[in-house]
TrEMBL record:
It comes from the Bacteria. It comes from Rhizobium oryziradicis. Residues 289-310 are annotated as: Disordered. One of its GO terms (cellular component) is membrane. This is Transporter. Residues 8-141, 155-278 form the EamA domain. The keyword Hydrolase does not apply. The keyword ATP-binding does not apply. SUPFAM superfamilies: Multidrug resistance efflux transporter EmrE. The lineage of its organism: Bacteria, Pseudomonadati, Pseudomonadota, Alphaproteobacteria, Hyphomicrobiales.
Length: 310
C-alpha cells in the first residue's frame, strides 16, 4: 500500500510539473503584447484561485497576511514578486529550454545563500554541485560568442528570487503556516507587478486574456497537484521530478515555438540538472527542506515540503 501511495505521489508530481510547463508556455505565447509586469499580475490574480484548496483545517483566508516573522515575510513578499517578473521576462525573450536552464540554477543559489545567511556547513560535494551548475550556465550562455539579452537577466533574477524565498522558508521553519508563505508570494507578485505595470498599462486583447488565464489557472492547478503529491510521497522522492520540466520545455519549444535546441544547450542542461540532483541528494541526506518547484508565478515560492502543506 505504501508503494502504491508513493507511486501516486510521483505521478501527481509529474502531472504538476507538466501543468507548470504548459503554464509557462501560455505566458510565452503572449509574446510581449502586454508587459511582463501585466502578465505576472494577471497570472498571479488568476492563480489565487488555488488558495481555498491550500487551507488546512483551522486556517482562515486572513492567515495569508499573518506571520510570526514580519521582516522575513516582507522579504519573501519582495523576492517572490521580483522572481515572478524575472521569470516571465525570461520566457518572453528566450526559448523555453534556455529559460529553464538558467532558472534551474536555483539550487546552487540556495546553497550559496544558506552558507552566507544561515551559516550552514557545506561540504565538497555541494560546492562541487555549485561549480558544475555554473559551468553548465557558461556553456549555455557562451559569453563572448553570442549576444545576451534582458531575457537572460530575467532568468537569473527569477532563480535568485526563488532562492531567497527558500532560504527564508528554512529560516522560519515550522513556525510559519503554509498559507502565510503562499500569501507572501502571491500578494508580493500582485502588488509589485501591479505597481510596475501602471506606467505603461494596456488592457490585454482577445486571446491574450485566455492565455493569461491559462498561465494563472494552470499554475494554480499545479500547486494543488503538488499539495496532493506531498501528502502521498516524501518531498525527497518528489524533488527530482521537477526536472521533467526540461523535457516539456524542449518538446513545447520545438512543437509550438519552433525552437532549435543545439549541442551547447543540451550539454549545459545536463550539467545544470546534474548539479541540482547532487544538491537534492545531499540535502535529503542532511534532512534539509528541499527546493520547491520551478515556476514563473507566485506558486514557485510555495515550498513543496511536507512541513507546510500537510
Amino acid at each position: 500500500m505504501t508503494s502504491d501511495k508513493t507511486s501516486r505521489g510521483i505521478f501527481l508530481a509529474f502531472a504538476a510539473f507538466a501543468a507548470y510547463a504548459f503554464s509557462d508556455a501560455s505566458v510565452k505565447l503572449v509574446e510581449g503584447r502586454v508587459s511582463p509586469f501585466e502578465s505576472a499580475f494577471f497570472g498571479s490574480l488568476f492563480g489565487m484561485l488555488a488558495l481555498p484548496f491550500l487551507l488546512k483545517k483551522g486556517d482562515k483566508i486572513t492567515d495569508i497576511v499573518k506571520t510570526n516573522a514580519r521582516g522575513l515575510w516582507l522579504t519573501r513578499f519582495v523576492a517572490s514578486g521580483t522572481s515572478a517578473i524575472g521569470a516571465v521576462t525570461a520566457f518572453t525573450h528566450l526559448s523555453m529550454a534556455e529559460a529553464f536552464c538558467l532558472i534551474f540554477l536555483l539550487p546552487s543559489f540556495v546553497t550559496i545563500m544558506s552558507v552566507i545567511f544561515l551559516k550552514e556547513q557545506v561540504g565538497i560535494r555541494r560546492w562541487s554541485a555549485v561549480i558544475i551548475g555554473f559551468i553548465g550556465v557558461m556553456i549555455v550562455l557562451r559569453p563572448g560568442f553570442r549576444e545576451l539579452s534582458v531575457g537572460h537577466l530575467g532568468a537569473v533574477i527569477g532563480g535568485l528570487g526563488g532562492a531567497v524565498s527558500i532560504v527564508i522558508y528554512r529560516a522560519v521553519g515550522p513556525r510559519e503556516k503554509g498559507v502565510s508563505l503562499y500569501g507572501a508570494g502571491a500578494l508580493g507578485t500582485i502588488t509589485i507587478s501591479g505597481i510596475c505595470m501602471l506606467h505603461s498599462f494596456t488592457w490585454p486583447q482577445g486571446t491574450d486574456w485566455l492565455l493569461l488565464m491559462s498561465y494563472g489557472l494552470l499554475a494554480a492547478l499545479a500547486t494543488v497537484l503538488m499539495m496532493f503529491a506531498t501528502k502521498s510521497a516524501p518531498a525527497a522522492v518528489l524533488g527530482p521530478t521537477q526536472y521533467s520540466q526540461m523535457l516539456w520545455a524542449i518538446l513545447l519549444g520545438y512543437l509550438v515555438f519552433g525552437d532549435k535546441v543545439d549541442i551547447p544547450i543540451i550539454l549545459g542542461s545536463l550539467l545544470i540538472i546534474g548539479s541540482g540532483l547532487i544538491t537534492l541528494s545531499r540535502e535529503k541526506t542532511r534532512g534539509v527542506p528541499l527546493p520547491p518547484s520551478v515556476a514563473s508565478g507566485p506558486q514557485a515560492s510555495l515550498s513543496t515540503t511536507e512541513d507546510n502543506l500537510d
